[in-house]
Amino acid sequence: MSINRVVISGNLTRDPDLRSTSSGFPILGFGVAVNDRRKNQQTGEWEDYPNFVDCTMFGTRGQSISRFLHKGSKVAIEGKLRWSQWERDGQKRSKLEVIVDEIEFMSPRGDNNNSAPHPATAPAKPAPSVNASVYDEDIPF
Is the pTM higher than 0.85? Predict the structure, then answer.
């Protein structure tokens, strides 16, 4: 069994890039800076080290939320990792990115230099119904 789930929160490093395939299928791309907090061994002080994560969202959801995102927006992302490899100008290239399943806006409303208020979260799946007959002792781990 393998699990491929990623949860990150951080700030957009650039304005999102909305493009589409030749058939018109929307693809939203953006970068998120996520800090890794570590203790500096020489000074003993805690320091933030940024990690830059490429994120991609497919379909009309990405198209819908693109107008609410901008460089600096704080977001929480849930998705899965995808590694891709290609060749350009005779050089092999690769990247690891997050394919976004869910996104939540964490910046205060009106903080996005855009007059349109953003929703609290992107369109999401309905909450699953809870089966009351499932208890902790039924879970095999």
Answer: no
